[in-house]
Amino acid sequence: MEPMLSVKNLTVKFPTDDGMVAALNGMDLTLNRGETVGLVGESGSGKSVTSQAIMGLFKESRAVIDGEITFEGTDLLALSEDAMRPYRGKKIGMIFQDPLSAMHPFYTVGAQIAEAYQVHNKVSKKAARQVAIDMLGRVGIPDPKRRVDNYPHEFSGGMRQRAMIAMALVCEPELLIADEPTTALDVTVQAQILDLISDLQAETNSAVIFVTHDLGVVAQLCKRVVVMYGGQCVEQASVRQIFQRPSHPYTRGLMASMPHLAGDTDRLTPIPGSPPALLALPKGCIFADRCEFAKIVPDGRCLNMRPELIVEDDHAVRCHGHELKLIDETSLIGAGS
Amino acid sequence: MSAPLLEVTNLTKHFPIKGSMGRTVGAVKAVDGVSFTLEKGTTLGLVGESGCGKSTTGKVLMRLLDPTSGSIKLDGEDITGLKGKQLDGFRRRVQMVFQNPASSLNPRQSIGAAIASPLVEQRIKVPGGIKAKVADLMDRVGLRPEHANRFPHEFSGGQRQRIGIARALALDPDVVICDEPVSALDVSVQAQVVNLLKDIQADTGVSYIFIAHDLAVVKHMADDVAVMYLGKIMEQANKRELFENPRHPYTRALLSAVPSVDLDAALTERIRLGGDLPSPSNPPSGCVFRTRCPAYELLDEAGKQRCSTEVPAGAMACHFPNAPLAATVGA
Predict the structure, then answer these.
(1) Is the ipTM of this complex over 0.90?
(2) Structural domain of B277
(3) What is the pTM of this model?
(4) Residues of B in contact with A192 (CB under 8 A)
(5) The domain containing residue A146 runs over which residues?
(6) Core-most of A58, A296, B64, B224, by most CB within 10 Å?
(7) The B69-74 sheet, strands edge to edge
(8) What chain A residue is nearest to B260 in terms of C-alpha separation?
(9) CB contact, 8 Å: A187 with chain B?
């Protein structure tokens, strides 16, 4: 079956005074209808740039984009700004991290949800307002008839995020991109929002790209995970495979450095060093300078050659050591220091 | 038994709300009757969600804010009433690491000068000179001493937090108050800083007040944990006890809300708190948690009556610890 969305070898570069910042360096991603994929990585790994590129938010910027984004057979990158409009907001919805800055402070919440609806549907103001009220009710805002006339500052953080979700879903998009929607929220509120997203997804059967840095959230919500590092997908697999058999040294390092609520480890194993500078990427594997397996791979391959994304049993890994079967499952979890 | 290193009794911090003509019309009860002790060489974790008063508690402990009432004793000496210059001696022994290292460092001051600033401010004579002391501190937190002349923007987030830690350690304090020191960092770097803080404690015997909202990090760092809600401590216990056998309904709800990476974890309790935090300027009467409490829902009338009476402050601020909990509460 043709995937609903496929991103192939996507590169995004931003010109700056210091040179080109390579935010994405050959990103690959596929998504099937109704599927939830977690996009995981640390700051600067390119998670948000990937989602913004899919939304076509770089069309009128100076960003240099290359590669392929195919959504239901259409190449989104080839579309003009006008031709992109029916996709953005209608077929692809987006939830941003910080609802306070994503909403206009001078307009009521209801007006903003109604506007999102009216842009894509020819309806009267009154009908759009009714849609907004229904939508607020669906995302669990108590007393939506009254709340529809509130301004964003009158909502609490959790309610604002619910309103953002209402705005993103009002046109019933086939694909929902949620960019760290719970990062700014407290855990108890985060739990409410995660429940809401999975309930609404079950209801509407839309596909979801869930961008997060929290592996716990991924485990709870997603079927498949894409781990990003330095603007590339370094590992892609089902949630079960990723947690039971993490194969890329970075994924392993990430898991070892996470403090857990269960169990009793006395010491965390951090990944040494810091994330790559996107202004001057190494010639070889982007993770090589933090990876201890780089030493055991022959011919200095990790330092000189970019590894390919190798797919085996639906488990994709971008690593020379893994490709050469030098990293087995028993070898030390985490890159150690 | 000797007095604990730090003893906090019934600490409150109320911020007045001014109405028209500057009259005080109410108060935000940010911290409302918090008591705990901290022993030498141990870590007390203060956890809770935003608005629970954990950061205000930290600031009052550091005397950056004056407490409304209550007492703070360091080695048995009451420091609550100290003012101005009198605080110098106290600040030599209690230091702070802030959440955002980018905004707590002066962008136009070299990091060497930043790390030396507590020594300069307190006019401390350092045998061997301040430069050597700074180099030693930088080395201790894993920074390269030759970078002392660089400026904060030249460092990554994790490195900046190391600078903040080096500055807090400059006076060899007995207590370091860490206010969300790792929340702004990525996990791989967060682990480096957590390990660093633990190593420093093992080396120097410093005590930490570790303020955080991330329960897993607190579990990793702390010896004792106090869970705060709406300015009050709900439950306070040894780490092992608190995480393995949480008793307060709020602690149980909080723990069950953390997304687990264990795919096969049998969820013994899955509790969802509904609604939002009540306003700290108008907290519910009696038990402040009762409006969202998953145990309250299942209580009979007499029990509910009891919950609207004052809960005695202490390690367990609940009339019905271990009570059965409803799966979801409120809207």
Answers:
(1) no
(2) 247-331
(3) 0.87
(4) 272-274
(5) 101-164
(6) B224
(7) B24-38, B6-18, B69-74, B77-78
(8) A216
(9) yes
